[in-house]
Amino acid sequence: MKIAVASDHRGVRVKEQILAQLESLGHEALDYGPSTGDSVDYPDYAKSVAQDVSNGTLDRGVLICGTGLGMCIAANKFPGVRAVNCHDDFTAEMGRRHNDANIMCLSADLLGDRLLNRIVEIWMTAEFEGGRHGRRIEKIREIEADCCRDPHDG
Predict the structure, then answer these.
(1) Annotated active-site positions, please?
(2) Where do the H-state alpha helices sit in 25-154?
(3) pLDDT tens digits, residue range 70-101?
(4) How do the domains of the chain map onto residue ranges?
(5) 2-153 maps to which CATH number?
C-alpha cells in the first residue's frame, strides 16, 4: 500500500517512527513533512495528505499533531476522506472495520511508543467488514455529494 505520513512540529519524531514501521510492514511509506521541529501549521500538512487520499494518489494516510484532533478536522474536509482520531487498540480497529477509515490521526503528546506501534499495526491489518457498515459509508458518500454540489447546477 502507498501511505503518506505527515505531522506538525510536535509530531516529527513520531512521524519518523511510523514511517519506519510502515516500511518494515512492507508498505510504501512517503514522508509528507515537515523535516524539522520548527513551528508549522498543521492544516497545511493535513491538506497535502488528505488531498492525495481524496484523489486516489494514496491508499491511506497518517497524520500526527499534539492531540490528533486538528489534523482530523482538517483532513475530513476532503471528499472521500474518512479520517479517524485513534487513541487505543479499539478505535484503531473499529476505525477500519466499521468506518473504512483511510486516514488515521494520532497524538504525538498523549501516546507512548509501544501503544503507537500497536495502533499502527492494528489499523494497517484490520479489514473493512462491509455489510451494514458499507451501507453507512455509502450514506456518507451521499452526504458529501449533497454538500459539495454546486448550488448553481440546479
Answers:
(1) 65, 98
(2) 42-54, 69-75, 89-97, 113-125, 132-148
(3) 999 999 999 999 999 999 999 999 999 999 99
(4) 2-153
(5) 3.40.1400.10
